[in-house]
Q: What sequence folds into this?
């Protein structure tokens, strides 16, 4: 399977603990996006990378959140000192972007469901 | 702030009926994507529309992008129980390509 993969699929943690999620994009894709989705809502943009550079962060991304894409391949999203409000589905998507493409189609992984107790 | 309003939010119909889902905004998008999502899974891309007025068909699904690239619709003909799911529209914003999602339409097709 050459799609986007995410690990773990589910994570249950206690408030105050740190958690880290991993995303492996489609191999030739240069852009990688993180989104968060709560129940009954559409996904909300958190941040994105073009190769290894983090180019934009949403105001939703507090200083407890950090994302990396060290070699321009896989990415990690870390949440420090988790709070109950962090409970959500964290989705990763990748795309092949270039100046002459008009669509920037994004392909999503299965998500990581985080529950903070 | 760019927003996408989807309607209706919930739709429950009988197998064989037709339906239309609408996605509206006051903002112009460079492209618009439609996704279908199953519970506990990530969204699966159905189609991308780029040109104003564009119409794309995917079997029984017809997608249309408004002339001004501010709105879109998804029409399903002769719905089947397998069409059940959450349908999301998402507009791509500028050079970042980040997606602005609507709230989603939950479709239930009863046999």
A:
């Amino acid at each position: 399977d050459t799609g986007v993969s995410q690990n773990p699929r589910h994570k249950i943690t206690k408030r105050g603990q740190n958690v880290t999620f991993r995303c492996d994009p489609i191999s030739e894709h240069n852009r990688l996006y993180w989104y968060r989705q709560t129940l009954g809502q559409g996904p909300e943009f958190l941040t994105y990378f073009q190769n290894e550079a983090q180019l934009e962060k949403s105001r939703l991304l507090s200083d407890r959140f950090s994302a990396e894409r060290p070699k321009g391949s896989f990415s990690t999203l870390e949440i420090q000192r988790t709070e109950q409000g962090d409970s959500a589905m964290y989705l990763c998507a990748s795309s092949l972007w270039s100046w002459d493409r008009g669509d920037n189609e994004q392909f999503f992984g299965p998500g990581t469901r985080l529950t903070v107790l | 702030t760019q927003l996408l309003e989807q309607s209706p939010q919930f739709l429950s119909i009988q197998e064989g009926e037709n339906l239309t889902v609408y996605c509206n905004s006051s903002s112009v998008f460079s492209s618009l994507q439609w996704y279908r999502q199953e519970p506990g899974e990530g969204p699966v891309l159905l189609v991308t529309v780029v040109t104003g007025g564009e119409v794309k068909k995917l079997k029984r699904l017809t997608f249309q992008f408004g002339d001004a690239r501010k709105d879109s619709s998804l029409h399903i003909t002769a719905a089947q129980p397998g069409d059940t799911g959450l349908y999301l529209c998402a507009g791509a914003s500028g050079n970042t390509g980040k997606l602005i999602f609507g709230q989603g339409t939950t479709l239930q097709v009863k046999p």
About this structure: Chain A touches chain B at residues 4, 6, 31, 33, 35, 40-45, 48, 55-56, 91, 93, 95, 97, 102-111, 113 (CB under 8 Å). The two ends of chain A are 33 Å apart (CA to CA). The mean pLDDT of chain A is 93. Chain A is about 0% helix and 50% strand.
